Amino acid sequence: MQALLNINDYIVEELTVKGNDAYRKTAKEVQVQVDIAFNAKRKGKEPLFMITLIIELNKSKQAFANNAYYVYLKINGFFGFPKETDEETMQKMISLNGLVMLYGIARGVVAQVTANGAHGKFVLPAVNFVELVKNSRTKSEAKMKRG
User: Does the predicted TM-score (pTM) go above 0.70?
Assistant: First the structure.
């Protein structure tokens, strides 16, 4: 059975990875600072969407000092639905499912690049996208009420 939502392509628009020369691995687990932003756009009335996902790790000086890498990744994913897919289904699926699919690709990109770094491969941490999308909608609705 074919999935309703398909990723047709993706482009890594920007990628910065900086290793921390002073980093020394310790036995205790260190918290990674993860900042995520996203935006979904539709191509007219077509069942085609683009999601831009920005991931930034260890942005603050303190977070970078305690971790092996600083990472900034901006990736665009291009998604499509079969033409007969109803509007409600597309709207429900694109943000959550599209983000999860694109984040999976981002994890592979970051792991592949950092595998060649001095501190070895780094895999992006798991993210609760249900909560992230929910919080994003709440912020958008609050801005609309104010504006």
Answer: yes
The secondary structure of residue 119, as a DSSP letter, is T
Which residue type is seen at 128?
Answer: N
Give, for 110, the enclosing helix (H) or strand (E). helix 87-114
Which domains, from first to last, does the chain contain? Answer: 6-146 (3.10.420.10)
List the chain pLDDT tens, one digit each, 147 residues: 567 999 999 999 999 999 999 988 775 667 899 999 999 999 998 999 999 999 999 999 999 999 999 999 999 999 999 999 999 999 889 989 999 999 999 999 999 999 999 999 999 999 999 999 888 865 654 443 444
CB-CB contact of 81 with 30 (8 Å): no
